């Protein structure tokens, strides 16, 4: 059955809210976004993956993003403090551009917001308040919300899209079951000046004694974030600023890169970031971006999934059938599950073990034969492509599982994956 959707309220003016608003407006819908203007000083989500570039082009914003970002040609992973494995995106082959950008998030969000304004989307600087209709799965905007927007929709909108990010407005209201990740880490981050320069502007990911950290080169600063079990972090002070500053000073790896650095911003903290709603649509609502599900940030997949998801959601809405909504939900859950599997390889230690085994075996015939092939598919994890190429998915499933075990059985390596797990 085709739904009769003409008017759409979107909760949240972040990247997913503004991109879906633009796409729906382009398709001729009446769209309004509830947007909270107050923005924090810094926002996480500064490293993009090549897979997002085609979507930025379709939106028509790549040139603007490029004008204030650093050009990111690859990713560098440090297994230990002096062992680095660099994957230029060009090694990934496939059809993606061999680059991405590191973006100052406030500017990036403004680009996507300005685009929606330019396309004629209406914005209300107001928090949307939703109510459940009786005991059903149907939602409505509260009376005071309708008053605040001057009855813009002439009654209730036909569809409410939740793009409120980790606030998860609809999931919370309807108590939708969620799938939580196993890890309960927190992330603390800030922008530093005077930290060791990174050239070319790859993202750097370090496995630490405790937890891991990112260094993202932005045009005039370096974003340094630490992802760690909160019980470890507590040892470094009472406030998040003390914890962050002291951790940087005490960790050997971080000290090396940040000894002469100055923290230029406050410290932002993020908790609980592995959560996936098991339902993505209902009678008159749909979830997109982080409001539908978010993953651990290790592979910088968040903004890509948020914006790609907005394209998929806009298509489902314009098809307007239950089949299309169901397919949207199935695809989102499937993608998130595959990304989660890749994330697990980071924490379990199997990704690092593979790097190490690769290095150990490089001087053997099998190493020389399989090495470049392996590098291509590992690079695709960092470019975002591994999830979408079925051969890469199968190959990586094989190398992370049976291949490592078979090599161990054949005494081609004697490494224990858990030795390199993130503590
Ligand atoms: C520690 C960490 C590191 C990360 N690093 C990366 C990275 O390097 N690269 C990457 O791509 N992604 C990264 N991410 C993920 C990325 O930040 C998110 O995936 C992305 O911001 C999702 O966009 P969104 O539009 O869905 O949600 P958001 O960006 O959260 O936007 C939601 C908006 O909705 C507004 N809102 C909420 N409630 C209401 C309401 N009731 N009414 C009106 N407005 C409302 C909020 O104020 C906000 O502006 C990281 C995430 C974390 C936690």
Quick recap of the structure?
This protein has 14 helices and 20 strands. The chain is an alpha/beta fold and 423 residues long.
Describe this structure in words.
By secondary structure, this protein is an alpha/beta fold. It folds into three domains: 7-42 and 51-67 and 104-179 and 274-340, 3-Layer(bba) Sandwich (FAD/NAD(P)-binding domain), CATH 3.50.50; 186-271, 2-Layer Sandwich (D-Amino Acid Oxidase, Chain A, domain 2); 346-420, no CATH class. It contains 14 helices and 20 strands. It has helices at residues 15-26, 53-59, 62-67, 105-118, 143-148, 169-174, 230-233, 240-250, 252-258, 302-319, 322-348, 350-361, 365-383, 390-409; strands at residues 7-11, 30-34, 70-72, 74-80, 83-88, 100-102, 122-124, 130-132, 139-141, 159-162, 178-180, 186-193, 203-207, 212-217, 222-228, 262-263, 268-271, 275-277, 285-287, 293-294. The strands form five sheets. Strands 4, 5, 12, 13, 14, 15, 16 and 17 form an eight-stranded mixed β-sheet that branches. Strands 7-2-1-10-19 form a five-stranded parallel β-sheet. A hairpin with a 2-residue loop joins β4 and β5. α1 (15-26) packs parallel to α4, α1 runs parallel beside α10 and α12 (350-361) runs antiparallel to α13. It is globular. The model has no long low-confidence stretch (mean pLDDT 93). Bound molecules: flavin-adenine dinucleotide (FAD). Flavin-adenine dinucleotide (FAD) binds at residues 11-17, 34-36, 44-48, 127-128, 163-167, 169, 187, 270, 273, 289-290, 294, 297, 300, 302-304, 306.
């Amino acid at each position: 059955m085709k739904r009769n959707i003409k008017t759409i309220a979107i909760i949240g003016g972040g990247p997913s809210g503004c991109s879906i608003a633009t796409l729906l407006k382009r398709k001729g819908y009446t769209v309004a976004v509830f947007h909270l203007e107050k923005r924090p000083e810094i926002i996480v989500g500064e490293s993009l993956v090549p897979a997002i570039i085609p979507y930025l082009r379709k939106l028509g914003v790549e040139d603007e993003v490029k004008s204030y970002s650093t050009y990111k040609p690859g990713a560098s992973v440090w297994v230990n403090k002096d062992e680095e494995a660099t994957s230029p995106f060009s090694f990934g082959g496939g059809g993606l551009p061999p680059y991405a950008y590191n973006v100052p998030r406030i500017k990036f969000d403004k680009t996507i917001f300005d685009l929606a304004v330019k396309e004629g989307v209406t914005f209300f600087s107001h928090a949307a308040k939703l109510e459940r209709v009786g005991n059903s799965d149907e939602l409505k905007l509260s009376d005071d919300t309708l008053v605040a927007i001057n009855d813009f929709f002439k009654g209730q909108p036909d569809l409410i899209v939740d793009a409120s990010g980790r606030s998860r407005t609809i999931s919370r209201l309807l108590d939708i079951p969620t799938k939580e990740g196993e890890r309960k880490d927190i992330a603390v981050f800030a922008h530093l000046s005077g930290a060791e320069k990174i050239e070319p502007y790859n993202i750097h990911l370090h496995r630490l004694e405790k937890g891991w950290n990112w260094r993202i080169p932005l045009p005039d600063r370096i974003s340094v974030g630490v992802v760690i079990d909160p019980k470890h972090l507590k040892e470094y002070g009472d406030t998040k600023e003390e914890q962050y500053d002291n951790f940087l000073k005490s960790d050997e790896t971080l000290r090396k890169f940040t000894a002469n650095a100055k923290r230029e911003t406050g410290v932002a903290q993020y908790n609980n970031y592995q959560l996936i709603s098991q339902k993505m649509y209902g009678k008159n609502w749909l979830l997109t971006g982080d409001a539908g599900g978010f993953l651990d940030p290790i592979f910088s997949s968040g903004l890509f999934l948020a914006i790609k998801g907005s394209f998929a959601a806009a298509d489902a809405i314009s098809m307007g059938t239950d089949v299309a909504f169901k397919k949207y939900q199935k695809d989102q859950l499937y993608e998130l599950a595959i990304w989660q599997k890749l994330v697990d390889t980071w924490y379990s230690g199997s990704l690092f073990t593979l790097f190490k085994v690769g290095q150990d075996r490089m001087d053997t015939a099998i190493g020389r034969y399989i090495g470049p092939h392996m590098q291509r598919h590992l690079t695709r994890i960092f470019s975002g492509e591994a999830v979408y190429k079925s051969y890469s998915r199968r190959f990586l499933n094989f190398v992370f599982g049976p291949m490592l075990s078979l090599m161990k059985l054949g005494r081609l390596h004697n490494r224990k994956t858990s030795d390199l797990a993130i503590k």
